[in-house]
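Students often ask why inverse folding is considered easier than folding. One informal answer: many sequences map to the same fold, so there is more than one right answer. In these notes we will look at a single instance of the problem. The structure comes first.
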């Protein structure tokens, strides 16, 4: 029997009870990794992911933690190490939107989005790196892999979503600076920047045929993305097949970043 790509490794995926995180957790499990399914509130979604992963033959546990809280992140990593011995792969996925026109945006909503989308990724990356260094090399090409879930909005400005765009712009330079600092330690750091993927975060944008048609104007490939598109990219970025990919953002967006406004001569 062929050995699965991520056999013998453990992945921790944040915000994995729904959407892209859940799909990444399941895809990593299918590829042979044990998976820690982090969730904030939706324990039913996390339990469902755990059940699906276990059916593939990989180990899985759900751990509740708010990624913006250091004590909860520390406790989550301790529990993950206790369950599976170590963590090899972090998918820094948890994220949310609190949209408002700039003049109406409250400081609370600014801090909330930055706290989860950027500080949450910082806290989880730091805990992951400490665990990679504690454990040492263990038969894989790198000491550990960190995959940050960014967005096309690390590049494309987004009116009405200033907090979200700022958080993803922050993720972009945090990821690249981490890659520069951690590369010599054999820790691989990259981002996935999804375009429009059908998940609960953007239901309004694809739920009706009219909304979907409007959305397709922004996508040269004329298909709204599916969570599996991101799960596949995450498995590849976590595997030794991508061992020389470091400090990169992989845009998985059907061409949303290709200035589609110019496809009809501008
Ligand atoms: P989603 O709402 O289904 O998933 C977000 C997950 O994060 C949820 O499970 C939620 O419970 C979790 N979460 C929120 N706050 C948390 C916290 N404090 N601690 C732990 N978990 C928390 O939406 P999604 O589309 O799957 O989003 C996943 C990631 O992908 C986000 O970072 C988002 O910015 C990014 N993204 C999504 C799209 C898209 O089109 N869907 C596009 C670009 C980027």
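Output (designed amino acids):
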């Amino acid at each position: 029997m062929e050995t699965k790509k991520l056999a013998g490794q453990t992945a921790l995926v944040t915000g994995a009870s729904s959407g892209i995180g859940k799909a990444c957790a399941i895809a990593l499990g299918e590829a042979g990794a044990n998976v820690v399914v982090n969730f904030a509130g939706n324990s039913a979604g996390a339990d469902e992911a755990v059940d699906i992963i276990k059916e593939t033959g990989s180990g899985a546990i759900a751990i509740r933690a708010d990624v913006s809280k250091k004590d909860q992140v520390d406790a989550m990593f301790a529990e993950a190490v206790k369950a599976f011995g170590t963590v090899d792969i972090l998918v820094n996925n948890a994220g949310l939107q609190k949209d408002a026109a700039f003049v109406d945006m409250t400081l609370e909503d600014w801090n909330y989005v930055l706290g989860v989308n950027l500080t949450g990724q910082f806290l989880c990356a730091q805990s992951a790196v400490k665990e990679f260094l504690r454990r040492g090399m263990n038969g894989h090409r790198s000491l550990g892999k960190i995959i940050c879930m960014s967005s096309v909005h690390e590049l494309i400005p987004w009116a009405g979503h200033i907090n979200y765009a700022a958080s993803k712009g922050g993720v972009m330079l945090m990821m690249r600076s981490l890659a520069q600092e951690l590369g010599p330690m054999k820790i691989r750091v990259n981002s996935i920047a999804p375009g429009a993927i059908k998940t609960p975060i953007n239901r309004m944008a694809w739920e009706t045929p009219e909304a979907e048609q409007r959305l397709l104007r922004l996508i040269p490939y004329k298909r709204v993305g599916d969570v599996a598109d991101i799960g596949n990219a995450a498995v590849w970025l976590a595997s030794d097949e991508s061992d020389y990919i470091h400090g990169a953002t992989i845009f998985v967006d059907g061409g949303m970043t290709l200035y589609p406004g110019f496809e009809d001569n501008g």
